[in-house]
Amino acid sequence: MLISDQYHQIQDSIKNKLLSTARNPSDIELIAVSKKQPKEKIIELLNCGHRTFGENQIQEIESKWPSIKNDFPDVRIIFIGSIQSRKVKKICELCDEVHSVDREKIVKLISDIKSQGLKTPKLFLQVNVGLEKQKSGIHPNEINNFLNMSLLKYQITFDGLMCIPPERKDPKIYFDQLKSLSTENNLNKLSMGMSGDYLSALESGSTHIRIGSSIFGARG
To answer: How do residues 138-164 score in pLDDT, each as one tens digit?
Structure first.
């Protein structure tokens, strides 16, 4: 199936799901996860009109996107990977949003960049909803303290929360949990849901879904 067909199929699935939730499709940000995808596939999707893409390595963003942006200057890049402290400045420079902030050190570095008058992206706080040792993200019980610390100590605010639910478990449990946590902390944006579970995430109130293989197919 062509990328354009897969893309429109995803869009139709989103619209159909939202019919039962009284939500507007324009409120949903579809992030096409383009990590390790060749330029040819990305340009095919760009020619469909899509402009929001997710990447998880700054090296790949640096090597792949500047030339694409010459022809598509309105592209938005969302950083969704693990953040290395030495890469924070470059991430802020090249990305429009970061969905994987997970520790105070990263907040401090972003604050330092902001204090220099440089560009800083919108931020989402990654939450370890499954309390998995191998995953990044702060403990769900620490969200309020972390948000207050970021604001009072570093003058940094967050737009929303992000999570990756545990594998082989019902993701809806964790999506509902993140929705409750966002409500408790007065954050109205939720980055949750990928190719295998985005419909469930939409039911739980996701505003940003991260779709890779269902649009592009297997990674190159």
So the answer is: 999 999 999 999 999 999 999 999 999
Give the C-alpha separation, 146 to 40, whole Å.
41
The overall average pLDDT reported for the chain is: 95
- Other CB atoms within 10 Å distance of the CB of residue 144: 12
DSSP 145-181: HHHHHHHHHH----SEEE--PPTTS-HHHHHHHHHHH
pLDDT of 20: 82
- End-to-end, the C-alpha distance of the chain in Å comes to 16
Per-residue pLDDT tens digits for 163-192: 999 998 999 999 999 999 999 999 999 999
Give residue for tokens 């639910």: 165
Across 29-44, b (16+ Cβ under 10 Å) vs e yields: bbbbbbbebeeebbeb
The CB density around residue 175, as the number of other CB atoms within 10 Å, is: 25
Strand intervals (E) in 81-214: 97-101, 122-126, 160-162, 189-191, 208-211
Contact 163, 192 (CB under 8 A): yes
| Burial readout 50-78 (b: 16 or more C-beta within 10 A, e: otherwise) | bebbbbbbbeebeebbeebeeeeeebebb
Torsions phi, psi of 109, nearest 5?
-65, -40
Tokens 């309020």 label which residue?
A: 144
Crossing angle (nearest 10°) for helices 39-46 and 3-19: 50
pLDDT, tens digit, 9 for 90 and up, residues 9-35: 999 999 999 988 888 888 999 999 999
